């Protein structure tokens, strides 16, 4: 009995020391492309920590993973920020559609993170995604998409789940369907590059041909009752469906339409935009801290 107690104590101390010894790791490779790298910011803890997965914005054509993790680290939440292939990388590599490159990379990064859970002292069941604009769209796509794990794969990383515990996003695009978007906002013009077209009119003209792609890569198309809690944050004007906002690419109109779909199937949803006076959460950081530390 004394030996068992000593062994358990030794193992516990070892676990604590391992957690405290974890250091920030930059540009850790999770895939074959030069942009398949992530930064790991570990929170100090003697138990596995929740994780914020930060996916940067930039239209899937620019941007970088640089972020400030302090607010989360102070609450015992580790942060992992990823880079991913741009759509132009997808075009160069003949990926069809080009948006499959950044979104597929994000899914792979999430699986890689789960594969490192023991080594990095992470709670793989509590991963919340966040980002702005295109990074927000990617976060929502991961949150709603059916699990992309391949349990029969020879690759242990590919066997890991791609499901999220929650997501909190800023200025998210929720659909890549030009028909739907123009019905919501007549002046909408963003997103054609995701499918390799020069402008939205070209995408509209070819919509029927690429409709399977539109359905696959539009987050709103994957909404179902088993999706995780979602928080949507928007700035700018008070959203009015059918209006032409100054910044349609990041308009709260999209949040209104997505929230309608989520609430219809019973998914816990927080929507914050101009015109909403009272809200429990001021921003996505506050939401994620609350959800991931409960």
TrEMBL record:
Q: Which SUPFAM superfamilies match?
A: alpha/beta-Hydrolases (SSF53474)
Q: Which UniProt keywords apply?
A: Hydrolase, Signal
Under the heading InterPro entries, the entry gives:
AB_hydrolase_fold (IPR029058), BD-FAE-like_dom (IPR049492), GDXG_lipolytic_enzyme (IPR050300)
Supply one GO molecular-function term: triacylglycerol lipase activity
Q: Which Pfam families match?
A: BD-FAE (PF20434)
Query: Which stretch is the leader sequence?
Result: 1-19
Coiled-coil intervals, chain numbering: none
Superkingdom: Bacteria
The segment(s) forming the BD-FAE-like domain are 40-234
Q: Which PANTHER family match?
A: AB HYDROLASE SUPERFAMILY PROTEIN C4A8.06C, ACETYL-HYDROLASE LIPR-RELATED
Q: Family per UniProt?
A: Belongs to the 'GDXG' lipolytic enzyme family.
This chain belongs to which protein, by name? Acetyl esterase
- The species is Thalassoglobus polymorphus
According to the entry, what is the taxonomic lineage of the organism? Bacteria, Pseudomonadati, Planctomycetota, Planctomycetia, Planctomycetales
């Amino acid at each position: 009995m004394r030996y068992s107690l000593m062994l358990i104590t030794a193992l516990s101390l070892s676990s604590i020391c391992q957690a405290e010894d974890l250091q920030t790791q930059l540009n850790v490779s999770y895939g074959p492309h030069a942009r398949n790298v992530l930064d790991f910011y570990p929170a100090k803890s003697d138990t596995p920590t929740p994780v914020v997965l930060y996916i940067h914005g930039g239209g899937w054509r620019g941007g970088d993973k640089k972020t400030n993790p302090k607010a989360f680290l102070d609450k015992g939440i580790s942060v992992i920020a990823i880079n991913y292939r741009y759509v132009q990388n997808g075009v160069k590599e003949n990926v069809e559609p080009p948006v499959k490159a950044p979104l597929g990379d994000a899914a792979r990064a999430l699986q890689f993170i789960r594969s490192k859970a023991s080594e990095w002292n992470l709670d793989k069941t509590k991963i919340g995604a966040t980002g702005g604009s295109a990074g927000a769209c990617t976060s929502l796509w991961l949150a709603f998409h059916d699990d992309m794990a391949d349990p029969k794969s020879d690759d242990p990383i590919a066997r890991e789940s791609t499901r999220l515990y929650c997501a909190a996003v800023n200025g998210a695009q929720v659909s890549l369907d030009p028909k739907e978007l123009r019905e919501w906002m007549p002046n909408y013009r963003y997103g054609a590059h995701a499918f390799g077209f020069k402008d939205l009119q070209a995408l509209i003209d070819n919509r029927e041909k690429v409709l399977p792609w539109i359905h696959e890569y539009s987050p709103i198309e994957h909404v179902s009752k088993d999706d995780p809690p979602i928080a949507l944050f928007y700035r700018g004007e008070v959203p009015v469906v059918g209006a032409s906002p100054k910044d349609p690419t990041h308009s709260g109109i999209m949040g209104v339409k997505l929230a309608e779909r989520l609430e219809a199937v019973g998914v816990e949803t927080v929507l914050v935009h101009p015109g909403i006076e009272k809200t429990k959460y001021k921003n996505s950081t506050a939401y994620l801290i609350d959800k991931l530390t409960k």
